[in-house]
Specification:
Layout: H1 3-19, E1 29-44, E2 46-47, E3 50-51, E4 56-72, E5 77-89, E6 93-97, E7 100-119, E8 124-141, E9 148-166, E10 171-181, E11 188-201
Antiparallel strand pairs: 1-4, 1-11, 2-3, 4-5, 5-7, 6-7, 7-8, 8-9, 9-10, 10-11
Length: 202
């Protein structure tokens, strides 16, 4: 699964380099970028195949990259699509399952989403997003002969919104909030993120 988001981002970037006009509008065309910020994961009931005794949470630093394409549907309306890949630092969650110690380690995440925005000025884009999210998770349950580990991919959905500002013709900066629901099989796995990013627009 890890190869898929990397290939998607690389393909979007290559397409952008080939398709970019000589004098690009900042919010019209392909772009790539990097992002960083804070996330809070809240997990309860169940994760993957493991039941959880009580709700637990964890705050962590998250880093990532993204690539996408903007299309100006009118002078003020911008729509597009984006693929992103991220991983958090020191984000292992500790919980309990049937009286045993359980650790939950999100390894990496990727997302595919659509964006729609409104240019409040020629340089400031207010936008919302929504789409698909996936996180690779490894669990370790304590046992008599050592921890029993398992890995699984959690599918979910994501929504968010933010503000992107054109610093120059090719460089823009963004700040946004995202909510992701990765709960499945009766479990709860909510993720709240506050992110900043810098984009290069081709």
């Amino acid at each position: 699964m890890m190869k898929f988001p990397l290939i998607t981002i690389a393909a979007l970037a290559a397409f952008g380099a080939a398709a970019a006009p000589a004098h690009a509008d900042t919010f019209n065309g392909p772009y790539i970028g990097v992002t960083a910020g804070w996330e809070r994961s809240q997990i309860a009931d169940r994760v993957a195949a493991q039941p959880i005794t009580a709700e637990t949470s964890r705050d962590a630093l998250v880093l990532g990259g993204y690539a996408g394409y903007n299309f100006k549907a009118s002078d003020r309306i911008v729509v597009g699509a984006e693929a992103g890949f991220s991983a958090a630092i020191n984000d292992t969650v500790r919980a309990a399952s049937a009286g045993k110690s359980l650790t939950i380690d999100p390894r990496y995440s990727f997302d595919l989403s659509a964006r729609a925005g409104y240019l409040v000025t020629d340089k400031a884009l207010v936008y919302v997003r929504g789409g698909y999210a996936n996180t690779r998770v490894r669990t370790a349950l304590s046992g008599l002969n050592g921890p029993v580990t398992a890995s699984d991919n959690l599918d979910g959905w994501q929504v968010g919104g933010g503000l992107e500002y054109a610093i120059s013709e090719h460089v823009s900066a963004r700040a946004e909030y995202r909510y992701t629901d990765l709960g499945s099989n009766g479990g709860q796995f909510d993720r709240h993120q506050t992110l900043v990013g810098v984009s290069y627009n081709f």
